[in-house]
Amino acid sequence: MMQTWLVTGGAGFIGGNFVLDAVASGVRVVNLDALTYAGNRDTLSALEGNPNHVFVHGDIGDHALVARLLAEHRPQAIVNFAAESHVDRSIDGPAAFVQTNVVGTFQLLEAARAHFKGLDAAGQAAFRFLHVSTDEVYGSLGDEGKFTEETPYAPNSPYSASKAASDHLVRAYHHTYGLPVLTTNCSNNYGPFQFPEKLIPLVILKALAGEPLPVYGDGRNVRDWLYVKDHCAAIRRVLEAGRVGETYNVGGDAERQNIEVVKTLCALLDARRPRADGLPRESQITFVKDRPGHDRRYAIDASKLQNELGWRPTVSFEQGMAATVDWYLAHEAWVKRVLDGSYRLERIGQEA
Ligand code: NAD
């Protein structure tokens, strides 16, 4: 029987990639997205007219709407991507992060709990609530060690604190109400359709425009990078076979200093589209004042997901970075509409 999933935040970067893959594999997706600045329906244009994709413009915090969607579409799973996701924005304005990531997730859980209660035994056995979260909830590492699922939470930014709070609510809904939840905590993603406020697309577009490439502090902060398609595959694997109530760390085993990431992008762009004056794009790098509370290093131990569920990243850092550069070079129309703001002006509307 065809599966139906309620995916939230599916007009965003990771959610959009996930929805495209899910529909292509024969899943029917009801896609609930509030279309904040980060939501972009252009990302979903390949699904226009596809009866297996139902787009709904709305908020995860709208209990009545979510209850109606659950009653009408009877999904086997809810996959929650919807969030405010940018650390710098959370420093400038944390309120939206508490509203969506904490209150919104709470409302979504409440609607899921009521729906779950009304299912028959077979429906309950098949139902899953998968919450997509971040490794940033674990705080910052020194030079050694990696985050495991047992690492105590120690969030340092309003973003990571709001995600940590949502993770705790999800956990509590399992332990208190028996909701069949799963949580994934993933490292930094990159790839097609990422909004250019995040490091990799920001650097690609500024490098092409001949603008300064801002690097925080000394550039030696370390992140683990995962190609977005590998993250989407991990979420699918956890949804299919993860043990209810468990948390799974997802990572790419690709730790890099920020400065290395920026230099890699510069070299890829120089090889594909050299600057008119022939200068290397590394010359555009400018160090800027560090982000307050900037975590030094994140690294993920994904062995639980690898050993229990057999997931592995399939795209190396080098392959993924090259594919991402090529994607941005080949999708000038998507980029242009993001940069001039026109992606927000059209196609906002409810269809379900
Ligand atoms: P994104 O900012 O690109 O997309 C978020 C989407 O959620 C947007 O489409 C936005 O319109 C939607 N949204 C925001 N508030 C909403 C609300 N109240 N109701 C409904 N929709 C709403 O984010 P992303 O990078 O795709 O991240 C998706 C999820 O994955 C987030 O939960 C994030 O915390 C998590 N995550 C991201 C990364 C990463 O590197 N980007 C890594 C690990 C985990």
UniProtKB/TrEMBL annotation:
Protein name (Swiss-Prot/TrEMBL): dTDP-glucose 4,6-dehydratase
Protein EC: 4.2.1.46
Cofactor(s) listed in the protein's UniProt record: NAD(+)
Statement: the UniProt record of this protein carries the keyword Lyase: yes
Gene3D superfamilies attached to this UniProt entry: NAD(P)-binding Rossmann-like Domain, UDP-galactose 4-epimerase, domain 1
GO biological process, one term: nucleotide-sugar metabolic process
Superkingdom in the source lineage: Bacteria
Molecular function GO labels: dTDP-glucose 4,6-dehydratase activity
PROSITE patterns: ADH_SHORT (PS00061)
Broadest EC class assigned to this enzyme: lyase
Pfam families associated with the record: GDP_Man_Dehyd (PF16363)
Reactions it catalyzes: dTDP-alpha-D-glucose = dTDP-4-dehydro-6-deoxy-alpha-D-glucose + H2O
Record-linked CDD domains: dTDP_GD_SDR_e (cd05246)
Span of domain NAD(P)-binding: 6-322
Similarity section: Belongs to the NAD(P)-dependent epimerase/dehydratase family. dTDP-glucose dehydratase subfamily.
Organism (species): Arenimonas malthae CC-JY-1
Keyword NAD: yes
NCBIfam families for this protein: dTDP_gluc_dehyt
